[in-house]
Structures are given as structure tokens and as C-alpha cells.
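Hey, can you fold this one?
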Amino acid sequence: MSLDTAPERHDLRRGVPEPDRPPNTAPSLWDGVGALLAGTWFLAARPRAWPVAAVPVAIAALLSVAALWLSFDWAGPWLSELVFGEAASGWASFAKGALRWLGSALAAYLSVLVALALTPALSAPALEHLVRLQEEALGAPDRPRRGFWFELRCELEAQAVALAILVPLALLLWVLGLALPPLLPLTALANGVLVSFAVAWNLLGYPLTLRGVRARERTRLMLRHAPAVLGFGAAFAAVSLVPGAALLILPAGVVGATRLTERMSL
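Sure. Predicted structure:
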């Protein structure tokens, strides 16, 4: 089954068709890196897509504001009252106040992390809309509507497979790094590769889930095109080292994943 079935592709900079690449040309490492850049350009050139692309940032902002308010208005005061109750002495009052602010700050930090972790899932409808926009621009054929529950099963199955493979590998690398310090450079490099594949797996999941590609076929696809997948995931992970950048480029990552999917074949 080939995913690269578009009759022609379009140069997004000029708005004119460009010839298809030969069907047997597999995407390279640099094609994977370029997919993220192309996804960024696609969104920048289409103002009508900006409101949809802004959905992840808006959701993260709303969740974070609510989390911060609850942390300082409820979590910190509740913790200080639970530990100290009615503080009688001056030292007890000081400790109660310090615990209130420390508890609020810790709750705020953890709740913002949770808000950021939930944002991609809550933004899924908007991100899937961007997938469809990119598919239309590439001239990809219409795909059958498989229904919400089928897509949900595909995504949950893919995440379960990823956790079953990536978590043991990450633990193994961690243990090797502790037990054999001379191997730290190699384990650090292997961790970078692992993170890159994990990032690419999640981003490619958006177009592949909409296509109904199950976890087994998804794994074979990504292994067959490992250089491109590695380049794409590494590019996104590198940009994500800047605090907050991962959320900002998430829409471009999803669009880039759609473009890269069009270059792959099952």
C-alpha cells in the first residue's frame, strides 16, 4: 500500500505544480529535517490557517491560567491549613505562611506541566484540520472516513506499542550509563536517537491515525524510512530545547509530518 499517491505536488513558494519524485525515491535524513521547515512555511503562507494553528497555544494558556489560579487560591492555603492549622506562635505563623507560598509554587509548577502535557490531545481536532489542509494542498486522494472510535483505537494501540518499546529501552540506557560510565557518550547519543524517534512517532501519528494505519504497519513504515524519521524527530526535538518552542511549532510539526507521510510508502 502506497501513501504517496498524489498525482502531482505543489511548490508552496510559487503555488505551481512541481513534478513528482520517482516513486522509488525514499525520503532521506535531510528530507525529514526539511519537512519541519516546509510545514512552517506552509502555515506562514496561509493566514487562514493561523487561527487553527493558534489553538494549542490558546488551550495551553487557558489551562495554565486556571491551574495557576487554583494553585495560589486553593492548593497552597489548603496545604498550610492541613499542616499547621491554627498557628499560635510567631514561628508557627511564619512557617505556615512559607508553606503556603511554597505549596502554591510547587502546585503551580506541576499543574502547568500537566496542562502542557494535555494540550496536544485537547488540540487534536484542530491539528487534524491542518492535516487535511496539507493533504488538499498536496493533491492527496480523499481517504475513507473510518469513524471516531476506529481512530481512537488506532491511536491508543500506537501509544501502547510505543510505551512498550521506548520505556524499556530508555531504562536500559539509563542503567548502562550508571553501570558503565565510559559508555556515557554512547548512551547519550542513543538517548538522543530514542527521543527523536519518540517525537516523530507522536507527530506522524496524526496523519497516520487519520489514514487508519495500525501500530504494526506504522512500526514497519517508520523503520523502513528510519533516516527520514530520525531527521524529522531530531529537528523538532532540537527546536524544542528552547523553552515553550515545542508548543509553538507543534502545528508546523503536524503539517510537516503530513508532508513526510506523503513521501513514505507502506
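The first helix runs from residue 29 to 44. Let me know if you want another pass with a different chain boundary.
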